[in-house]
Amino acid sequence: MIDALGRVRDHFHQAGYTVAGVRELLGPVAGGALARDEIVPALRATRGGSPLEAITRLFWLQVGIPEAGPLTDDLVAAGLAERSAGEVRATVHVEPLESVGGDPGIGYVVSDLKVRPGGEAPLRLDHVVGAGGASANLAQLVVHRPVENALDLGTGSGVQALHLADRARKISATDVNPRALALAQMSFALSGLRDVELLKGSLLDPVRDRTFDLIVSNPPFVISPDGRFSYRESGLPGDEVCRRLVTEAPSYLVDGGWCHLLANWLHIGGRSWEERVGGWFTAGGCDAWVVQRDVQDPAEYAELWLRDSCETGTAEYRRRYDAWLDHFERENVTGIGFGWISLRKGGTTVRVEELRQGVEQPVGAYVEKIFDGMAGGERFSTGALRTAAGVVQEQIGPPGAEDPERIVLRQTRGLRRAAGVGTVEAALAGVCDGTLPMEPLLEAIAELMGLPADDVRAHAQAVLPELIADGFFEIAGR
Where are the beta strands (DSSP E) in 130-229? Predict the structure, then answer.
């Protein structure tokens, strides 16, 4: 089978079976319809009979194709397709994967066939999903530095391990689902990725007493009343799987090591979600950054995951919907947050925040600078600062007014935060280039504004730590 997978890889390369190749083949209309699980426009766009069209029809549209000599022979020999009623049909879904930087050729992901609304077969309980929006979000979050060894916890079809192949010398991948491990092995072989260590077991159990430079996880974080599907639900109550991962992960990291994961967390009536989730990090040992990107109410959440399992419109839909709402009502759940958690071993700073705006991707390209800023804000006293690249100033007020009502510093890069500031901070943003310490700058600003130097100094020391932590200023020399 390994030899056949290698030959299939050659066929894919020759056909131009990449994300960009499929996108160009389908065009915006058929591609957009396929994203909505409508295949008719894509069927019309792939009628020409070229190898790329045949591969796309087979694995994306999941329709039979005629025998095509060596291509279909090798697909069958590799276990990716089978002969049925005079045609060749896919047994699994195979999709190309591109890097977060747009490299089109980092590998291929083998997962279970897609189950579309109205399909004849229900979603199997051990279903293995392929690449998607969540896995792409995680890949964009992961720190870019090269590492000696990395762990892909809950690998599924192997997406994150493939993303790590260019920066980790050794990769271990775990999953509780044997079918996931089997398909991940096919993903790695088809992508030419060798020597990934595959381990069966729940969460961190398979790697007890080991440490890693980098841990990534797209865990089964979905909060449900029954825990039916292993690819999305852990069987643990509420958001316990995410809490357990972030409390246990520090013990599996080397000093300076990183952990990144996606997560869901509950909003409980009468409690601050920031305090509740922030309480997961009381043991210390790591700098922690928790970012909430979205919040759904209980009904929205139930609908999302019932659509995900293609149960909308089925006989069981209303009963399962009702069970989900009963579950959330018993637990006094008012909402469910979705976001990411990053840890860096060796600190104690914890930041929990909400970022709904679009951010510059990939975050992993500058996540180290974010962590340095978080810790630097707490330690800053009077050293030299520089204004971060991409910070602009906006002045807001009535047209023609001599003085603005409000001054805003805004980041045009990175996390694209905005902060209302006073005249002292605005003046500092205009002159901080990392060459002078704060003291002479503050004295000059006080003299220009006609303010007591002690007042300006006290104000700066009160507000600058937060602006450093938010990334508007950077400590020179870091």
Answer: 147-153, 168-175, 197-200, 212-217
Of 19, 192, 193, 188, give the one whose Cα is nearest residue 99: 19
C-alpha–C-alpha distance, residues 432 and 191, integer Å: 48
pLDDT above 80 for 259: yes
- Please state the pTM of the whole predicted model: 0.93
Q: Which residue has the tokens 């980041």?
A: 411
Q: Which of 134, 137, 187 is nearest to 165 (CA)?
A: 187
pLDDT of 121 above 90: no
Q: Are 165 and 150 in contact (CB under 8 A)?
A: no
Cβ atoms 468, 376 nearer than 8 A: yes
Q: Distance between CA atoms of 280 and 272, rounded to whole angstroms?
A: 13
Residues 20-44 pLDDT 10s = 999 999 999 999 999 998 999 999 9
- The contacts of residue 24 (CB under 8 Å, 6+ apart) are none
Using a 10 angstrom Cβ sphere, with 0-12 exposed, 13-18 middle and 19 or more buried, the burial of residue 274 is: middle
Distance CA 35, CA 21 (A): 16
Please enumerate in sequence order all residues whose Cβ is within 8 A of that of 293, keeping only pairs 6 or more positions apart, or say none: 338, 339, 340, 354, 355, 356
Predicted pLDDT at 438:
86
Bridge partners of 175, per DSSP, are: 200
pLDDT band for position 401 (cuts 50, 70, 90):
low
